[in-house]
Amino acid sequence: MYLTPLASINSLDYITVVIYLLIVVGIGLWFSRGKSDTDSYLLGGRGMPWWLIGVSYVVSLLSTLTLVGVPGEAYANGVTLAVASLMLPIASIIAFHIFVRFYFVQKVFTPFDYLERRFSPTIRVMAAGFFWISRAIYLGLVLYASAKVFTGADNWSIPFTIVVIGGVGTLYTMLGGFKAVVWSDFVQFVVLTAGIGLIVVYATADMPKGVFGVLTHAFENGRGMPELSEPSFYSFSTTARVTLIGLVAVTINEQLFFNSSDQIALQRLLSTSSYRQARRSIFTFAIIVTPVILILWFLGLVMFTFYSGKPEGQRPAHGDMALFKFIATELPTPIPGLILSAMLAAIMSTLDSGINSLATVATKDFYLRFFKPNATESDQVRFSRGITLGTGVLAVVIGLGLSVSAESLGTSVLETSMAWMALSVALPPVFLLGMLSRRATPTDAFIQLVVGWLITASMLLWYHLSQGNSGDGISFMIVGIPGPIIALGLGWIISRRHRPLPQSRLDSLTYRSSTHLNDNS
């Protein structure tokens, strides 16, 4: 039987969490030595082990948005969205092979450097700016999701949690640079997987029929995949909450973004010594990520089954809080502290990755390009540290703003994150146009970027405005679909007006004009 529920996590649990925070800050201090050039500070010297980068890639993209949103979605609505998790490994490998080798050939720090070489400095700055905006919002979402962890576990104030977590994550990222980020990711992966495993074992131990009983109860009570039997799931409906086309589009859009223009993901791959090593890293990611996410879906079903037998007053107020309420009230000390440390592991990993990547883009695509072109390596490292601090502060401010918006609309963490992250899908089409077309010009890319981003921003606005109309709101999954499709088609059509650019202008920048694209780049 379960132990008598605790009122909340206690002081010993908090001591465990504090010790963990001190460890990750200590990692930052350890790696803060000898960072005098940007290769070392921002890319770890371009010699990071492929297996370490593969693990870091997993942890950086398995943010609290996943840890809160996936179990919360399973608890409240079922596991239909898990179909996307099954498609993720194949989509990630295909997207990697489309884009990443170009970046190794060009020896870039950021993917936007490629856009300058293929198109123009203007296109580089525009794309980098769009990335900066979308990923700054993403970091705010991560902090908002982290607040849900401690609100569910011990009724922490959301603003207080956002400020504390944001402050610690910013501090150790600023101190240690990329090596601190990657090695702390590895520590966090170990803590996170151990924590998740502990919850699964403990939560299912005394349930009738164990894992089978959980699945049976959940599927019999509408928490399986109920949408698969509904005609709307296979339609092009904009109001159906989940559709097959939406799941496919979201998975493809995410992986195209991660491998074309997401500095968080690409910074890891570019820190390896070669394209071949980076490919090993992406295969490591593909092998690890799906089992971890499927376990999180299962955890949501476990929480639903567990709380189904409880009186109404003992159930969580919102699906996003179910897992963390269970951690705080059903597990004996010091297990809640250990598992909350695991949750902090994911929060910190995504936060440090995001802040570090935004600092890289700010340094290489803005500071060095416009403000101080002759900056020394030491100048750039100092600027990177400063912008890291500024980015962390901005993420906290955005997190506070998004928390107000999400709470007022009553949307889940998963819905809020998928809607806002649609802003990033305007970027992959311009990379695809540059790599696939020998005719595309800077003007074509400019039109494509503007049109794609405006359509997606308009869809996001429509989504938020429509949430107040009961039954008439568009699905959160639809927000990111029209923009990239229209932008890619438009860019290709208008580029056909031009003659192909000369081979010498495009060498190693497009597929049909490349002579140096090989696995040893």
- The oligomeric state is single chain
CATH topology: Sodium/glucose cotransporter
End-to-end Cα distance: 58 Å
Mean pLDDT: 81
Secondary-structure element pattern, one letter each: HHHHHHHHHHHHHHHHHHHH
Task: Give the CATH class.
Answer: Mainly Alpha
Rg estimate, integer Å: 23 Å
Shape: globular
E-strand count: 0
Main beta sheet, described? none
Strand content: under 5%
**What percent of the residues sit in helical stretches (DSSP H or I)?**
over 70%
Report what the structure shows:
The chain is an all-alpha fold and 521 residues long. The chain has a single domain, classed as Sodium/glucose cotransporter (Up-down Bundle). 72% of the residues lie in helices and 0% in strands. It contains 20 helices and no strands. Helix 5 packs parallel to helix 10. The radius of gyration is 23 Å and the shape is globular. The N terminus is likely disordered.
The gist of it:
The protein is mainly alpha-helical and 521 residues long.
Write the layout of secondary structure elements.
Layout: H1 11-30, H2 38-43, H3 50-61, H4 64-77, H5 82-106, H6 111-118, H7 121-154, H8 158-205, H9 210-220, H10 244-260, H11 263-270, H12 275-308, H13 322-330, H14 335-371, H15 377-409, H16 413-420, H17 428-436, H18 442-466, H19 482-495, H20 503-506
Helix pairs in contact: 1-8, 1-14, 3-8, 3-11, 3-12, 3-14, 4-7, 4-12, 4-16, 5-10, 5-12, 6-7, 7-8, 7-13, 7-14, 7-15, 7-16, 7-18, 8-12, 8-14, 8-15, 9-12, 14-15, 17-18, 17-19, 18-19
